[in-house]
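OP here, attaching both records as promised.
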Amino acid sequence: MPQTKTPSVIPAHLLDVAAEIAAEEPAIADWLTGVEEGWFLRDFVPRPDRPEVFDEQAGFCFNRDPVSFLIGGNAAGTTEAAAYKTANYLLRDQPPPRKNTPFWIISNTYDQVCDVCWLEKLEGHGHIPDCEINWDGVSWLNKAKGWPKSVPLKPWPGRPGRNWQIVFKSYEQGRRALQASSIGGFWFSEQFPLPLFLETLRGCRECMFPGGQFAEFTPVEPELSLWVEAVMEDPPKGWRFYRANTEENEVNLAEGWLEQFLSVIPEEMRDSRMTGALAGFEGVIYQSFMPAIHVIDEKHILFPSGAYHAMGTDWGASIEHPHATIWAYRDGMGDWVIYDEYWSASQNKITLDHVTEVLARCEAWGWPVEELDPKDSKPPHKRLRLENTASYGLNYADPSRPGEINEWNVRGIPTAPARNAIFEGIDCVRTLLGVNPATRRPRLLISKNCKHLIQEIRKYRWMRGRRPEQGNYLNPKVALAQPLKRDDDCADALRYLLFSLSQANRRQPSSVRHAARAPKAVQLATKAAGRTRQSSRSIGQGNRGMFKGNR
């Protein structure tokens, strides 16, 4: 047979081996010829990077980063780019370390991973040519549809008995299906939960090859965008994020498609659908909240002279409705800093456990905590001593549970029912998110350690009704003008605290006036603690160190 020209896609150190194999295997010879003529890996040419318009397809395709992400708009060519990167990795860049080394392709459904990633892209567009597949070893999920469960590739030249095996996975299988497997790389297609990604990444513990762990998606789900944004702000070493712009891929789209698509995209979704900008929540309540402006590092939290401290609490005891308490101080300008949070979704903890934790944090932050005689007090035999202090105030809590408020008072944390005017409270928080003209800083700052509060403020949104296009409704239900009761516990605690004190004097009343104005339960707790004052000792006054537990 005529001599086959070994193409440039063959690594230099394998040219001689490729020539020998081609001389003996006609199918391989045909494949090499096809490669040189351009049908394999060359029909698709990654777009040159244009980061100024959020388009970095080539950077993603050719990078050798340990972990990389291509975040793009709809029809921006992210899946095609990932298919190209997969073929390069499996056929050119990375020799398999053992027989049937798994490379996982994972998506939200089997329709996506088998129909799109495999049938349309990898096989259909020739990224993985038929001559590279060991068809006798293919395991089928649905042979009639052409959906494989796994596709073994043929051994690499010069590496007998060592080959890659493409394995197809779906998020529908859950985290357990992704556990305890040692794999040689993966491609995530479409948005995914962080636990699934971490479990899959853990599977690369033995074979963390350069360029072999990557993902591509359009960020249309706000819930799944939060963790991505957090990682983008402070990425682990070796992680890299790339973007893809739909408009830059217009040449590969049907004529007129882009104009039609743009005409039906809601304005608030356009950036996500076109350039891969991370999605925000529709109907978000605190639209002016920006982590880059409102979130500060713990080391910048310094209690100024005359600062007034208080707490806010939302009751709960489950993952749907956890317990949340926040700590804050107000400075002499009337501006607020939220410096700690206690969040617990445990269903095993009782009131005493929460009280003990909150008192411990108060002590760590320098609040006036007093030990009590066990003979004359309930556990935890401590209390906040707020008489004769202008620097520390009450805990303002959800007023719907007066029994819990009373119990906290009796156990040593003076607690009052918060003002729960929802709309006025929301307006109060919105106002404080604005800039103080005198300081040119936001009137509300939050420590970056308050992770649940930060996340909830971003997700805090109005309820919405069902749109006509979401069902056959002549008169779709209009949602009530109420915040969505989901992931809002820290946000509610913040609202309770800030609104309850929004019209209060900056200075705490004297002990007599304080007792007169406090709820009856607070007065009883103060009197009970006073009877044991002579047998108690003050603790925690000077300790402003950070309390590290249960953060």
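Record two, same layout:
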Amino acid sequence: MLQKKLTQIFKNLFPVFLVAIFAFLVNYHYGFIGLMPMDNTVLYNGGYRILNGYIPFTDYWLVTGPLLDYLNAIFFYLLGTSWKTFIIHSSIFNALLGIASYFLFTELGLSKKFSTFYSILISLLFYPVVGTPFVDHHSTFFMLIAFYFFIFSVNKKNSFFILFVPIFFCFSFLSKQTPAAYGLLTMSILVIFNCFLNKERFKSICYYIFLGTTISILFLILFLFSTKINLTNFIEQYIIYAGSIGEYRFLNYEFKIIDIIKNYKFVNFFILMLIFIVFLNCKNFTAKKNDILIIFATLSLSCLLIFHQFLTLNQNFVFFLIPFLCAISHSFFVKSYNNKIITGFLIIMCLAAVFKYHIRFNEERKFNELSNVDISKAINAEVLSKQLKGLKWITYRYPNDPNQEIQNLKEIIEILKKDKSKKMLITDYQFLPAIIGIYDYSPNQWHHPTVSFPLKENIYFKNYKKFFVNNIKKNEIEFIFETIEKNETITELILSSNCIKKERLKNMLMKIKLIKNCKDFS
């Protein structure tokens, strides 16, 4: 009897382990292949900063979520500061999404075999496209889990699962404002529809939404209090200024239907399939109302992610929606029609699309701007630091000569190690402070002008400049070092020309002396 129970447990858990192991290993593999200096390393430095006691929004200007800095710090604290630990972080989250997807698909009626199949495909196209922890991916991960709990609640007719929706939206928002904000607005509408369609559960839905929201607010207060994040700075940087960037993009967004059709043709195909299923189910609306609500939730999730992708201006990362939408379509076709020809066609379409984007984004590393780069020229980054052991170093900046880039960075490291002055380091290679064992005192987490921090023509520039100058004064900074090849520096976008004196030390290193008797420092 016991042996039968153990056998059954093994059969139930084996697909979960299979999905988890595949999802972890596939991201772990691609996370070590090439990098984009700023985007792939900024959170590495974020975790290192937190470990050294520095506070987001107070010690550095931040327009993306602080949660990832603290998550990275936890991983670095437990496993050591290294690229390996960094990739373990993102690989675990990729595995968690695969597991969650597996349970969602089995709940919707797919067999274990197909649930495993689709979950593996999702994990192939979710985190591996970037490899490293990334704010958009973490925010999307938490939002997906919130939608999964909503679908669980509707399908099981159990309001308890609604409790977790606000909580995961809180995590999503603390990772990045969008797509969390779009998702929260969409989910609010879906919850209202849920209450309207299932009036017998109206009170329980409202109760668990209220309870989940209360827990989320308490967590947010506890998070801000325990991390000593300044609430005024948090609101100014993370909500007001970052919100103004989103507002500007939204107001200037040019909707082009042809671009959506062309860029997301496979996603659109499966969206049309789900719309077709809704149309068929409308004939028996009363009996199928929850199925229709689940499909609407799926369609809403897909559309808001595409909308976010267009506004965020990053490389595409939403193609994991293809196996997700195919799985949802498959589950409803099996439930209602059980047509093997249709489901077979869906699977072939899904496999073809996943293979295409796997090659483009995983093998060719398009997200990291390496699609036209010969990745075989990559070298082991351990020659730069043991922290980077296993990383195959190649970037879009030195695609034909990664050794030269490494040599330039070695020279920079040597200069910064020898320099004993109070200095600030502004660099796209944000693992440098951890490698050297210094704190960079950089006023920004990200160094994208107009996006990461305001420039002179922006109404928030005066506040930012005050923040910049106060950081210099507080930390008694004498020099600013920038790893930059061109002559225009980040510093001179902020400070007046009579406040600085530039000196090029190396091909990739500029030294800037601060002249503190100028008006900016008065």
